[in-house]
Amino acid sequence: MDTVSNTPPPVQKRNSKLKTRVTGFFVNLYDVSKFVVRFFKEAFVPPYEFKEIIRQCFEVGVRSLTLISLTGFIIGVIFTKQSRPSLTNFGANSWLPSLVSIAVMKALAPLVTAIIASGKVGSSIGAELGSMRVTEQIDAMEVSGTKPFKYLVCTRVIATTFTVPLLATYSALIALLGGYLNVSQNEGTSFSEFMESAFEPINFIDINASLVKAIVFGFTVGMVGCYQGYNSSKGTEGVGKAANNAVVIAMFLVFIEEVLIVQIAGWFR
Amino acid sequence: MEKAKAQINYDNPVISIRNLEKSFGDYHVLRGIDLDLFQGENLVVLGRSGTGKSVLIKLISGLLYPDSGSIDVLGNDVLTLDTRSLQELRIRIGFSFQNSALYDSMTVRKNLEFPLVRNKKGITRKEIDQSVESVLDAVSLSQTINQMPSELSGGQRKRIGIARTLILNPEIMLYDEPTAGLDPITCIEINELINEVQQRYHTSSIIITHDLTCAKMTGDRIAMLLDGQFQRVGNFNEVFATSDERVKPFYDYNFIQ
After folding, report:
1. Where are the transmembrane segments (chain A) (predicted)?
2. ipTM associated with this complex
């Protein structure tokens, strides 16, 4: 007896899978763009949820402060310690403060803060909103005539956009403090000397670029966390996925943005 | 156990649904539903799990959109309303969720205040407190005002969920499985509360359930949803006076005989 298989040949199957993936990617991209546009449409029209924004700023700050303090300090100390032998070879120990400040202020502080915020804050936003979605709390807000998007998403994104630059600045200062302690112990440099040479190579564009970077990173962490949580589904599995995606996607985007902003800042020099 | 006769205005339907269809992928949930809810009436929608009962009230409140058909609520075509008008209409509809959907990061007081302060512009602190106390009194849970949702029992959560909808004085109440997951005594208390709400707040309600005790106690009219359509509509006795093999087991497997 002859049998006719209904299964499509492997190449056709692979092509259709690829087609689904590509379509899925563009559908996702469209959804994300819609989400971002909705944020800008709703965030700047009254009524404003000031109380909730302040509460969220506090939450974001408190959640990450300990880790950022510790990480910032360790980065300062370790970076100084590791750079010393190379600089000693060239007899350029006096450049240590400048080297630390350039590394910390231009790159490490915003980047490390954003990565910590992705892990601590992004995941928590993703999980919180995801759990509110699956337990119908967001639907409950919707049917009671309130605007859940404004209350839940806009407040959190504004909070991360404001707080991450503050945390990044704080992290840079703590890292410099770590660097100073190491330098003063080994080279006997005074605080004023350290700070003078630390800020000497830093100009206005560097500080602005770092601040812009931190603002963009903060916006990204908040937006990705909110998007993942707000659109999560499939019960508890969906909540876990939302939290996980919030971290992974935010980190990925932060690295891409870092490269782009460094490139753009380079054009202004 | 049967409920007292309510004052129903059969000339004034507050919800009119015509030829409503909804599918999820290949699964055709609702297949051309027609339904009227009259002013002052408690209409129970009965059916097995997965037959689209909850989908129906989500369509009415604009949480989902149908494939075709029309939904008229308090003189508004839900499907053509813009966001603001839909938001205004929703204030006139109370929605009690199956799992209560209380905001778990807020106390009971904050849960009740949340819709109030966002919908009633210029409301004073005193008026907010009065409204909160009044609805908590209506559901007999004044003592829970400062508790978190996680500290409440299932029955208490249902009551607070109902109180949160009542705080905006809705004209229509939509109850999604109000007695699901509760013990029989609490079920009866919730059923009595639904009737009290009808009397005290003059609401018209759709009650989604598969609990026949709830249907018998609260329903002025019962609509049986089978295979995506209302197969039998009438009072409790009329609906179950049938030899239809799809309806009979529903009655037989419940404890009412």
Report:
1. 60-79, 99-117, 157-181, 201-225, 246-268
2. 0.90
